[in-house]
Amino acid sequence: MSADRRTPRRILVTGVGANPGFGLARSLVRLGHTAVAADANPLAPGFLLPSVIPRIIPLACDPGYPSALTGVCRELAVEAVVAGIEADLDPLSRMADELDAEGVRLWLPDARSVRAGTDKALFHHVLTEHGIATPRTWQPREIDQVPDGTELVVKPRHGHGAQHVHFVRRREHARVLCELVPQPIVQERIHGWEFTADCLVDRAAQASVILRRRDLVKAGLAAVSTTFDDPNLRDLVEQTLGAVGARGLCCVQGFVSADATITITEINLRIAGGFPLTEAAGADLVGQMVNGLFDLPVDHTRLTYRTGMFLTSYTETLAVGDIAELERTTVLKGEAP
Q1: Please, what CATH class does the domain formed by 10-107+318-328 belong to?
Q2: Half-sphere exposure of 92 (CA within 13 A, CB side)
Q3: Which residues contact residue 159 at a Cβ distance below 8 angstroms, ignoring those fewer than 6 apart?
Q4: pLDDT by residue (tens digit) across 73-132?
Q5: How far apart are CA 15 and CA 220, in angstroms?
Q6: Domain limits of the chain?
Q7: Domains 136-188 and 191-312 are alike in CATH topology
Q8: How many other CB atoms sit within 10 Å of the CB of residue 177?
Q9: CATH number of this structure's domain 136-188, picked from the four choices 3.40.50, 3.10.490, 3.30.70, 3.30.1490
Q10: Cα–chain-centroid distance for residue 167?
């Protein structure tokens, strides 16, 4: 009998200290898979999920990251690795051959697409080349070119999770912030209501797109969200996926202005933090991702969804306690609790 999405797999998820990786590890466990929860923070919330195998790994920028990750995969007979945070995408892409030699699967686009998905300046260039509306963007040295009266956003070129993002109304303020924000870019601020498109692009470039309105956003995360459909918006998201060359799980974000203009602001080549709404609306997002990860057909009929479904998210305390006690339960040692 051929393997399918019900075959238990052992899958390592990086970045389980953040919402996307945390949620993905939890969803894999619910589907019957074994999730190896990996993060550089010894107190990452994902380490406390029931049934996961926690492992501490170096930061993606650490020279020891490749050997440490490969060692964990070898030790635990990991079958596949899925990035839950942007920082891991580039090193994983460069490790593809090494992981393949260990029998470990990845599902990432090519190196150029990874760069376009993690470099906001390059993403702007790619979308502009393809005639897709995206915010006007300037390098710090180009601030004098910003038209008078333009509201601006200063953010890291390789940032994520709404970190170091600042909104200003004057070029002078943007110039100061460029001295403080790591590797900054300056973009035109877009007004309107926000959306996220949860996407799964199979190996033949066929995409399923699930649209969610971001009704209330806090610290870059959708605290309240509802599913909807819009053929024009869905078509623009599919154009964006094609322009970047996205594959596997990803999400696209943007704004719809009062005059119905759609502006694409970013793409993330990993699962979105709010994907539980997509699954609650009927789309088998993680299950079909596992299919594609293991070279099985992605069933796009399982990725349809109901509109009008809502999600309300709330931050709560997951655990409090004595670190010494946590060490005795072996979580901080990177062993299964």
Answers
A1: alpha beta
A2: 27
A3: 120, 165, 182
A4: 999 999 999 999 999 999 999 999 999 999 999 999 999 999 999 999 999 999 999 999
A5: 16
A6: 10-107+318-328, 136-188, 191-312
A7: no
A8: 21
A9: 3.30.1490
A10: 23
